[in-house]
Specification:
The chain has a domain of 34 residues. The protein has two helices and no strands. The radius of gyration is 15 Å and the shape is extended. This is DUF3606 domain-containing protein. It comes from Mesorhizobium tamadayense.
Length: 61
Amino acid sequence: MAKKKSKPALSVIATASRSEATEADYFARKCGLTPDEALRIMREAYEASGNKVADSGKPKR
């Protein structure tokens, strides 16, 4: 049997909520960044404002 291939690591954008990803894409195009860089900057700014960043947009049970 063939050996199973490992899955590639997900980008930061893939783990973001849909609205976060959309905003990061817009910010990235406007500022000449990659979407991953834009999302990282947005999350750092949000944390610096005293709020905590959720891991994803899905509610926890």
